[in-house]
Amino acid sequence: MAINYTLLFDRIRAIVAALDTQQAIPATIETAVDDVLTEYSGSLVTAAEYSAVQAVVASSRAERNQGGLRNALINLMGQEVVRQVVADVLTFRGSTNEAITELIRQMKADSESVDACTTGISVGTASGKARFLGSLIDVDGVQTERVFAETAAITASSTGLAITTQTRVQPTDPDWPAGSQLSLSLPVSSIGGLVANGTFDAESTTETYYPDLWQVLVGTVGTTIIQTQYSTQTVTLSGDPTEGWYNLTLTDADGNVQTTEPIAWNAEASTIESAINSLTGWDVDVATTGTAPNLVHTITFNQAGTPSTLTVHNETDGTITPAAGSSVDTGGSDKLAMVWVGNGSELTSLEQRMTLQPSTVYAVALRLKREAAATGVIRLRLVDGTNTVLDDDAGTANTVSQDVSTVSTSAFDWVTAFFRTPSVLPDVVKLNIALTTALANTKKLYIDSLTMVEARQLGTLGAWFALIEGDAPPAFGDSYSLSFTNNRAGNIQTRFVRHFGRQLPSDNSGSETILD
């Protein structure tokens, strides 16, 4: 047995037509009343005439807001769905909402569809370094048609974004649709999120260059898989100093010059470290070797790049010599980054086991930078214990790929996507990052900030969002934008969304089986 779609939607089509006509009547009346008002405008209108005209306006508004017929038609549409479900499932005793759930289930099983409404989303960052992401693909893998055509107001703070949409009117109001009148407090998520060592800052304690907490499936650690290293510089004291002090002056890549407070001739590592870290934008570790008073202070810079110059103002009775440390690949990352080095054939692959929830939307992101002339394709995906890609409930693979040749050579580019876990998860779920086309020989691909966080929904509209910390968290005064579009092209779909808040299976290619 199955629901009688022909009978059900013939009746719904007639009800929708009646609702459309009923909605159009007040507008027609208002147009006619506007014509009357035009005739009674101007300085020659008497008080009595003005009073009479206002009575007409009041009557027009009453007619416009009269909802008895409209509500009766809406109730009839819900009752008709219940009746047709009961005719198919004789034991059904559920509500209108439960009947629509059964209708949707059967429509999916029978590949039935109504005409779709085309929806769109635009998210943007005018200023601010956090990454703002949005998606209209709902948890079931289907694009939502429940959003309103509106622009949201967004206020940024250090903890995230406050999103507020436009004022709402009731679904029975002739002015519908207006806005959704929803709010969302979207917290900022740290880099990594659910991904352990997504920053690739942590190196294995047992193997050099090996990114901790990741399993290498394909690749040679130290050859095709390495890490960027923090750069170092040294400050060497010689000549057996016995008194005095010195300053260190650091100039960053942008030309900003800062000088430490005076440092005693016999200062230990912690004192030098504190002096540099008190400067704006610098984060260092200092290790001291040698035999006092002829000490060697090795400064490790825990951020992007090294000072373009490090100079010493010496007021000791010895000699102080600054010098660059070992030559390393910093990659330009904020911290450490993973580096894949191509050999022309290897399809490098790493994975990490994840703990995720079923029927959940997750935002994923990573940052990439390439060496000049580097080519290849990198892919991020969810897989099960057999390394088979995990699909959402709509059969869409949870995967995103990036052509390496289009990635910047001078800065890290973001690659982002939304993954949706199915309603039934396998026992093992892994996050896999791999090449599907090998990197060009000897060329490097820098990988950083791999992040996966649970997305937040705006109301029950099926619109999902995440805010991921980039080079810095959001701050008051940052400017972000969000807007939606909805052409309301599907008439039956629009009525189900409007009056019941439910979305029927649909088709936007013109191949729907149930016509408006």
Q: What would your notes on this structure say?
A:
- The longest helix has 35 residues, at 5-39.
- The protein is elongated.
- The model has no long low-confidence stretch (mean pLDDT 90).
- With 516 residues, it is α+β, with helices and mostly antiparallel strands.
- β13 and β14 (294-301) form a beta hairpin.
- The strands form seven sheets. Strands 3, 4, 5, 6, 25 and 26 form a six-stranded mixed beta sheet that branches.
- The chain has six helices and 28 strands.
- It has four domains: 5-115 and 495-507, no CATH class; 119-190 and 473-486, no CATH class; 215-225 and 333-454, Sandwich (Jelly Rolls); 230-324, Immunoglobulin-like (Sandwich), CATH 2.60.40.
The oligomeric state of the chains shown is single chain
Radius of gyration over C-alpha positions, nearest whole angstrom:
32 Å
N→C terminal distance: 25 Å
CATH domain topology of the largest domain: Jelly Rolls
Mean pLDDT: 90
Shape: elongated
Q: Which percent range fits the helix content?
A: 10-25%
Q: What's the number of structural domains?
A: 4
- Top CATH class of the largest domain: Mainly Beta
Sheet of most strands: 6 strands, mixed
Strand content: 25-35%
CATH superfamily of the largest domain: Galactose-binding domain-like
- Helix segment count? 6
pLDDT < 50 runs, ≥5 residues: none
Q: By helix and strand content, what is the structural category?
A: alpha+beta
Shape-level CATH architecture of the largest domain: Sandwich
The strand count comes to 28
